[in-house]
TrEMBL record:
Residues 1-27 form the signal peptide. Residues 69-84 have a biased composition (Polar residues). This is Beta-lactamase-related domain-containing protein. Residues 422-751 form the Beta-lactamase-related domain. Keywords: Signal. InterPro entries: AmpC-like (IPR050491), Beta-lactam-related (IPR001466), Beta-lactam/transpept-like (IPR012338), PGH-like_rpt (IPR049511). Pfam families: Beta-lactamase, BTRD1. Residues 59-92 are annotated as: Disordered.
């Protein structure tokens, strides 16, 4: 999925949210660098760190998405007739500085200079060896996308961003800094009601609002762009100065230890409006002044006066309002220097500041002058403002709580239990995983089930064996089973074609255009085994594009706009969209929704009843569903900005507990203890590898990979990951976590945990079956989440591991 720059998308950059395979037969990887694999040459990166090859730019431009409405505070034809005075009128930003401690620079722009003299992309950064420390960029959307994506690869963090429209063209500007800090997100613009909902929901996962600003689309319609960082313990309030009770709120915040850390202005129906953020604990105890409602000229004078008093500008933003340019600013009385550069040419700004390499760009905004030219206002300083450190690892000091399914501890000796616990704890500590659940079955009898860590860090709610997690592409084996069931019932065959003459869908998707090359050759088998010939997650995940479309609309769009690259059956290309097609096939064949059919015909016969496709927001979580957390200290993929369930279900949408995954597995695995819901022929087809995959992928299952002799599939979604394994020796295992990493090594580490279990499969040679207990526990939990914790507990049941808390 291409995630275009705000305000267009759920997050920033032209990063691709993709599920891809490193080699045939392995499951997906969320690869931040996938769209930019053309940057593999380190020589190119080192020599031109923010220059994108033309072919990569073309890929970015080719991706379609909705253009924003005219949400800039001022459209070009409405540009202000008031031009702020500066120290000089040179359009190239060569004004004299107001002193080394700070000052505004800039002046009136010449008519037409924007269109005639500025390139489509401006990018400035320090010289080698510090060229990756920061980047300041402005220009065409796709070109800026590339710059930000490369900076993210280098560890850059977005610190300031904005956009404006030129006719139908979207232009962006941004500042990235390289430093270690908490994971951050920059969601799509939101209405006021959505903002309040986001505050409430993000508080639950320790995301603090650190930046917010309004934009006016249609007159009186305001959306808010926001920036959030995961900083546990930080409290914040949104403030609208100038509104009723704002002064009382300010006094209340100050009396309770809060500090104003961000201030921004915007125009609403021709009136200047303002929004700020108060936070505590505070990052600075220095005296500060905050001002809003100033004209830009008055703001320049205020900056000059405060600089002479020893203050440093820590925030400064401008916006158009009727025939004025208005300004907001925060200044702190502290050591340091700041300078505000005003103009169009970023390179000239940088030359003005180069004499002091410690002065770097901190904040950027814009206005339109009276000649309809874009003018950038960039705050430079040598003061690191409001940089939060990465939160401490969760399990450095704290013990990891454990909850067992009743009956589990009795099936293992203390030494065996200690071995399993230590292996899981090592994985969780090494990767800072908040919560994990694991279940193990042998000969289709459940032998072990436990939850480790927290489902909710803030509330310190322990994970139990019955908590549900998003399982990502472990949904594909579920969809494959549903397809094979329909084949068993005679609705179609593996070799049935989907498009064209004498096919399942016929001309349904060719009423406007003829089917492109290869499309009419696609069969059901090709989709199941990822050999349809294209729609590659690595290049561009077609399942994620056009999120507002229905599945039928998406299919028509992709068939028309995303051509197949290879003849079906000849190349293994992992594809989410292929399974989207299979979900649509299930719906058109049965007359039921995909989710309803699978619940009734796959999960219910397996003894699984309380299960569903994931919903996108925290407020829509299932009663037993965990919270999800983002990894790293860079851009986070927001777990709670997802596609709707009808778009995500067939290829990555289900939530389940590991116990439920094993209950499903026991009905399609071909072992003899439980009756399968599929025919022997269908099960044999699931495990038949395709030549195109180098014999490593069958129908919905990876085969004999990662050292597993049997079937395997892993899956991930933002904030979660899962793995389901069926070994030929009769051992079956499932594991889920509520945090994920983009690197493929993450699944290798997860696989190692299961290998340690598999190597000791002879521990469970009795006929005891915990599935009966899990069914009772699962059904009792459907009415209310509280039932999960009604089991009687002992706190220290194993003297060799005082961290363990068991269900008994």
């Amino acid at each position: 999925m291409r995630l275009p720059l705000l305000p267009l998308s759920p997050t920033i950059g032209v990063l691709i949210f993709v599920f891809l395979s490193i080699k045939a037969g392995t499951a997906e990887q969320l690869d931040l660098n996938a769209h930019y694999h053309g940057f593999a040459s380190s020589k190119r990166i080192n020599a031109y760190p923010y220059t994108a090859p033309e072919r990569v730019v073309e890929k970015a431009i080719s991706r379609k998405h909705k253009k924003p409405q005219a949400t800039s505070p001022r459209q070009p034809h409405e540009a202000s007739s008031t031009v702020p005075s500066g120290a000089a009128a040179d359009p190239a930003n060569t004004a004299a500085d107001f002193g080394m401690q700070g000052g505004m620079q800039g002046g009136p722009m010449n008519p037409g200079m924007m269109s005639n003299r500025l390139p489509p992309l401006q990018t400035v950064h320090p010289p080698a060896p510090n060229e990756k420390d920061w980047v300041l960029t402005a220009g065409n959307e796709s070109l800026v996308d590339n710059v930000l994506a490369i900076s993210l690869q280098y560890g850059g963090r977005l610190v300031s961003m904005g956009y404006y429209l030129r006719g139908q063209d979207v232009n962006y500007y941004a500042i990235m800094h390289k430093y270690t800090g908490p994971v951050f997100i920059k969601p799509a613009p939101m209405t006021f009601d959505e903002l309040i909902k986001a505050v409430r929901e993000n508080e639950a996962r320790d995301l603090a609002l650190t930046q917010v600003c309004g934009q006016e689309g249609k007159p009186g319609e305001i959306t808010f762009t926001t920036y959030w960082e995961r900083v546990p313990g930080v409290e914040f309030h949104i403030w609208f100065p100038g509104q009723p009770h704002a002064d009382e709120q300010k006094e209340h915040f100050e009396n309770n230890g809060y500090r104003l850390t961000y201030l921004c202005g915007y125009s609403e129906a021709g009136k200047g409006k303002y929004v700020g953020v108060w936070q505590k604990p505070v990052k600075s105890e220095a005296q500060y002044e905050a001002h809003y409602g100033l004209t830009m000229e008055a703001c320049m004078q205020k900056d000059k006066i405060l600089v002479q008093k020893g203050f440093v500008a820590t925030s400064l933003r401008v916006f158009n309002n009727k025939n004025q340019v208005l300004c907001t600013g925060i200044w702190e009385n502290r050591n340091g220097r700041s300078s505000v550069q005003v103009g169009q040419n970023l390179e000239t700004m940088y030359r003005n500041m180069q004499r002091n390499p410690n002065m770097i760009p901190r904040q950027m905004s814009h206005y339109f002058d009276n000649y309809q030219n874009i003018v950038y206002v960039v705050l430079w300083s040598d003061v690191d403002i409001n940089r939060y450190p990465n939160p401490a690892p969760l399990w450095d000091e704290a013990p990891i709580p454990v909850r067992f399914l009743k009956g589990t501890p009795e099936l293992l000796s203390d030494d065996q239990m200690e071995f399993l616990i230590k292996r899981v704890e090592h994985f969780m500590k090494d990767l800072n995983i908040p919560g994990l659940s694991i279940a193990i079955a042998k000969k289709e009898q459940l032998k072990f089930a436990a939850g480790f860590g927290y489902t909710d860090i803030r509330q310190q709610e322990p994970v139990t064996p019955n908590h549900q997690f998003r399982v990502g592409s472990v949904s594909k084996p579920v969809t494959a089973a549903a397809i094979m069931l329909l084949i068993d019932k005679g609705h179609f065959t593996l070799d049935s074609k989907l498009f064209g003459k004498d096919s399942i869908f016929g001309s349904e998707f060719s009423k406007k255009y003829q089917y492109p090359r290869y499309v009419t050759e696609i069969t059901v088998r090709h989709l199941l085994e990822h050999t349809a010939g294209g729609w590659d997650n690595l290049q561009s995940d077609a399942a994620w594009v056009q999120p507002e479309m229905t599945t039928k609309e998406l299919i028509e769009y992709v068939l028309t706009n995303v051509p197949l690259e290879y003849k079906p059956g000849t190349m293994w290309i992992y594809s989410n969209f292929g399974y989207q097609l299979l979900g649509y096939l299930i719906e058109t064949t049965t007359g039921m929704s995909y989710e309803a059919f699978v619940k009734k015909n796959i999960f219910a016969p397996s003894g699984v009843y309380d299960i569903q496709v994931a919903r996108p927001s925290i407020s829509e979580r299932a009663p037993r569903e965990v919270m999800y957390y983002m990894s790293g200290n860079g851009l986070g993929f927001n777990p709670y900005e997802m596609l709707p369930p009808e778009r995500i279900g067939p290829w990555g949408g289900w939530i389940a507990s590991p116990i439920q995954l094993l209950m499903f597995m026991s009905r399609i695995d071909g072992f003899s203890n439980r009756e399968d819901i599929l025919s022997d022929v269908a099960i044999a087809e699931l495990a038949t590898p395709s030549p195109a995959s180098n014999d490593t992928y069958g129908l919905g299952w990876s085969l004999n990979i990662m050292g597993f002799n049997g079937w395997q599939h892993d899956g991930r979604m933002p904030g979660s990951a899962a793995m389901l394994v069926r070994l030929d020796n009769g051992l079956e295992m499932a594991v889920t976590v509520n945090k994920e990493y983009s690197e493929r090594d993450f699944f290798h580490e997860l696989g190692y945990v299961l290998h340690h279990v598999g190597n000791n499969c002879d521990w469970w040679n009795d006929d005891y079956d915990l599935f009966q207990k899990s069914r009772r526990s699962s059904r009792s939990a459907t009415s209310t989440k509280r039932h999960l914790f009604n089991a009687q507990r002992t706190t220290i049941h194993n003297t060799t591991n005082p961290h363990v808390i068991r269900f008994v």
